[in-house]
Amino acid sequence: DDNWNLIGNPYASAISAVTLISNNTNIDGTIYLWDHNSLPSETNDDPFYDDFGSNYSSLGYTAYNASGSVPIGFNGYVASGQAFFVLMLDSGSQNETVTFSNTMRSSTFDNSNFYEPNFENDDDLEKHRIWLDLINSNNLAIPILIGYIQGATDGNDRLYDGHQLSASEFSFYSLSNSEKMSIQGKSLPFDASDAIMLGANFTQSGNFTIAINTLDGVFEQENQGVYLEDTYLNIIHNLKLTPYNFNSDNGSYDDRFILRYTDTTLSTNNNNLNIQLNILAFNDGLKIESKTLKINKVMVYDIQGRLIQRFSNINSLNFTKNRLNLSSGSYLVNVMLENGHTSSKKVVFN
Question: What integer pLDDT is reported at residue 267 of this predicted model?
Answer without folding.
Answer: 37
